[in-house]
Specification:
The protein has 247 residues and is α/β, with parallel strands linked by helices. It has helices at 15-24, 39-49, 89-107, 121-126, 134-141, 166-172, 175-191, 217-231, 242-246; strands at residues 4-7, 33-36, 55-57, 69-72, 113-116, 150-151, 157-158, 199-202, 236-240. 40% of the residues lie in helices and 13% in strands. The mean pLDDT is 94.
């Protein structure tokens, strides 16, 4: 049986409500999900919304029981320690601890996937965890060197840069980083069943630089990355003007 772990995110945010609503839509609770978070805040939304869910605190995934929302709480943060909708170091630390425990259980083979509810980056930093977001936490705790954020829908999108200033995003668009993302994207798409993916690399500048008229990053960094990927057998095109890619 496959079990999906769901991290609550910031207890003072929207995560608890979203999780309870989502699991309440399942006709019958199976032991296919385990929530990493605090029970009392979910019970509050359950009662407020009249959803009729039942909760069960457990210490280990093996104790999951049908008919309940099974919850693992690694730190026992309770509602008397924070205020809903307000930034706090306690909630930022809690959000991190929920992710940390879920990743440990995943690496130990106890769960097969992790789904994350939103955290607040400012609260995360207040809690002493100086990460840009979920992506960087997962990379660090899984000892992953090459990684990127990927959106998976009708259009699959991978970020060369993620949470940083626009100025820094420009500096991060190096040949090495773009080539790494092309490789990651190609591998990821194949793993999802797309046997022959075609990847488009968006330009950094308007009109993808217009042959150097509006910037040289395409000439100096992006085109060499695309050509190197083609040399490795990847079906990749670009750089293409960003508005063209997304239309």
């Amino acid at each position: 049986m496959s079990i999906i772990g769901i991290t609550m995110g910031d207890p003072a945010g929207v995560g608890p409500e979203i999780i309870v609503k989502a699991l309440a839509d399942i006709d019958e609770f199976h032991a296919d999900y385990v929530v990493y978070g605090a029970v009392d805040i979910m019970e509050k939304y359950n009662a407020q919304l009249g959803l009729g869910c039942r909760f069960r605190e457990i210490d280990d995934v093996k104790d999951c029981e049908k008919g309940y929302i099974n919850v693992i709480d690694p730190i026992r943060l309770t509602m008397d320690q924070y205020e809903i909708g307000r930034l706090s170091a306690k909630c930022g630390d809690a959000a991190y601890r929920y992710i940390e425990r879920s990743i440990k259980d995943a690496l130990d083979g106890k769960i097969q996937a992790v789904v994350t509810a939103p955290l607040n980056k400012e609260a995360l930093h207040m809690g002493g965890h100086n990460y840009d977001g979920h992506t960087e936490i997962f990379a660090t705790l899984t000892n992953t060197k090459d990684y990127a954020m990927m959106f998976y829908g009708p259009l699959k999108i991978m970020h060369v840069s993620t949470h940083c200033s626009l100025r820094e995003a420009c500096d991060r668009a190096t040949k090495e980083r773009v080539l790494t993302c092309i490789r990651l994207m190609n591998d990821a798409l194949k793993k999802t069943g797309i046997s022959a993916p075609h990847i488009a690399v968006a330009g950094l500048n308007p009109h993808a630089g217009e042959h150097g008229l509006f910037g040289t990053e395409e000439i100096e960094q992006l085109i060499p990355a695309v050509e190197a990927a083609k040399g490795e057998g990847v079906n990749v095109s670009g750089p293409i003007p960003p508005d063209t890619v997304f239309s």
